[in-house]
Design a protein that fits this description.
Layout lengths: L2 E4 L10 E4 L6 H7 L33 H6 L7
Antiparallel strand pairs: 1-2
Pfam families: Fer2
GO molecular function: iron-sulfur cluster binding
Protein name: 2Fe-2S iron-sulfur cluster binding domain-containing protein
């Protein structure tokens, strides 16, 4: 099961966190289950940009993503 390290952030994770994500689970869902309140204004359908996360390393895009997200390593967490 992949492990995601959440760096400290004043609002959703002040002390940071480590989250295990089961295959097929979105990053957004995994964060929410672990009580890390990531914004998701569109209801997790990929229609807004509020759940974008910054990926520092170790991530590959398993499904087609926007060119901008692939280039900047900021995928929508709901996808």
């Amino acid at each position: 099961m992949p492990k995601v390290t959440i760096l400290p952030h004043p609002e959703p994770a002040p002390t940071g966190a480590e989250v295990n994500i089961r295959a097929g689970t979105s990053i957004c869902d995994a964060l929410l289950v672990n009580k890390i309140d990531v914004e998701h204004a569109c209801g997790k359908v990929g229609a807004c940009t509020t759940c974008h996360v910054i990926v520092r390393s170790g991530f590959s895009f398993p499904t087609p993503s926007t060119r901008k997200a692939r280039k900047s390593n900021t995928p929508a967490a709901c996808r």
